[in-house]
Amino acid sequence: MVLWLSRTYFPDGTNGKLECEGKYICNTIELPWKKNETKVSCIPEGKYFIKKRYSNKFKWHLEVLDVKNRSLILFHPANNAQRELKGCIAPVTKLSEPGLGLMSRKAFIKLKDLVYKALDKEESVELIVQSVFLTLEG
Fold it and tell me: How far apart are alpha carbons 138 and 39 in whole angstroms?
């Protein structure tokens, strides 16, 4: 399974759209791009793999693997990137402003169910992160 995250960058946050096989899953919010600095920047564009992860704080969620110079980059619920994220990606149902969204838990459950279904069938799950401008070809 391949997930495509198409991003739009703003000074106060990064907004995205997450799709699988051309089908919309949800929007996303992240911190602004600050050269991949730990805890203050979104992750670089590129190709990553996703796995299941459990923690007491977030229970079952998703981890983005092999992010250069970073660790514990997660998909977890959050509605305010500046206040609730340290480099992670938050699925949201609706975008409200750069780095802000609504009904994150609902969007997260939808994404988690989709990804866990693939992982339970031992499929690999790739995440391709790109700028929205790359998707406007043709």
Answer: 36
